[in-house]
Amino acid sequence: MYDSIHLSGLKRTFFLSILIISLAACTTTTFKNAHPIDPAQVSKIQFRFVNRSESLGKSLPSADIAQRVAANLVHVGYQISTENNSLYSHDLTAEIGTTKISSTPVGFSFSSGDSDPRGRNFQKANVLPITCTLTSRGPENNQVEYSLDFANKKFLHYEQQPDEQTKLIALLVDDISTTCFNLLSNLKIKTQTRNSMSLIPRATRQKYVSPEPAPSPEYKAPDSPTPNAESQNTDSPAIGSNAASQYPESTNPEPSPEQQNGATPVPDTENQPVATPTPENTLESSWMPSFIIVNDALGEDANGLSADEVPNSNHHRKQIIIHNEGTPVILEMGYDRR
Length: 338
Fold this sequence. Notes:
- With 338 residues, this protein is α+β, with helices and mostly antiparallel strands.
- It folds into 2 domains: 20-209 and 279-285, no CATH class; 290-338, no CATH class.
- The protein contains 5 helices and 10 strands; from the N terminus they run αββαβββββαααβββ.
- Strands 1, 2, 3, 4, 5, 6 and 7 form a 7-stranded mixed beta sheet that branches. A 3-stranded antiparallel beta sheet has the order 8-9-10.
- α2 links the parallel β2 and β3.
- The protein is globular, with a radius of gyration of 31 Å.
- The two termini are 36 Å apart.
- Residues 198-286 are annotated as: Disordered.
C-alpha cells in the first residue's frame, strides 16, 4: 500500500515538472495603448536605452547595447537609429527593471521551485522585466507601452561574473530586441527593405557588419601535353650536359637586391580589390526575435504568415509564435491550451 502511494506521488511530481516546462504563462505580458498611435504616421524612429536595474548595476555598456538593438531592428526592416535627429517622428525607449520573483514568462522555461500547486512559489521564477515605449513627437504626445518578463538566473550576478558579461550582454540585447519587435509588430508599423543599413551610423556598420572577403585568385591547372610519340617516351633523361635542355627554365624571377640583403618585400596593394559592405551582408548574427506574441486578430505578421495559413486559428485568442531553425511553433493560449 505504501509503495503504491509513493509511486503515485512520484508520478504526480514528474507530471508537474513536465507541465512547468511545457506551458507558457501569458500573465507577464502587458500592452498599454491608452493613446493609440497611427502606424501610417510613423516614419523614422530614434531609439534609446535606459538601465534602471539595481541587480545589473550601472556597469552595463548602455551605448553599445542601444546600437546593437537598433541594428537588430533595422535588420528586420524598421527605420530606427540611435542618432538624435529632429526630423524623426517617434521615439522608442527600452527600459530594464530590477529582477523580481514572478510568474514564469512567455516561452519555454524551467524552474525547480515549489512543486506543490498550493505553494507560494509554484510556477514562479526570477524574471527581468523589459519595457519598450513608443512615443510620438509633437503636441499629441501619444504613447504605447509594451512589457515582457525574461527568466535568466545569470542576470542576478552580472557584476560578479566578469568572464560571462559578454554572453550576458548578448542575451540582454536579444531580449530587448524581442520586446521592441513585438511592440512594433503588434502596432503594424510598416517595415522597409530587409537588411537596410542606411539608418545605422557608419561606426556601427563598420563594427557589426562583416565585409565580404576579397576574392581569391582562381587556380588553373596546367595544360596537359598533347599525346604524341615524343610525350609517350618515359625513358629517364640522360645525365650530362644535354639533361638541362629537356626541361624548361624556371619561371621564378631572380631575387631582387633588397631580398638578397634580407629585406622584406612590400606587397603591391594598389591593384588589389577592396571589399565594401553591402546591404546583403548580415549583422553580427542573422537576428530574428525569440518569439512573436500576436494579440487578438493574428493578421499579418513580420514573416508574412496570415491567419488563413494557420490551422484552427481563432481571432479571439492570444497566439505565441516561437521561431526556431525549422518551422515556427505557434501556440494558442486560451481556456483549452494546446
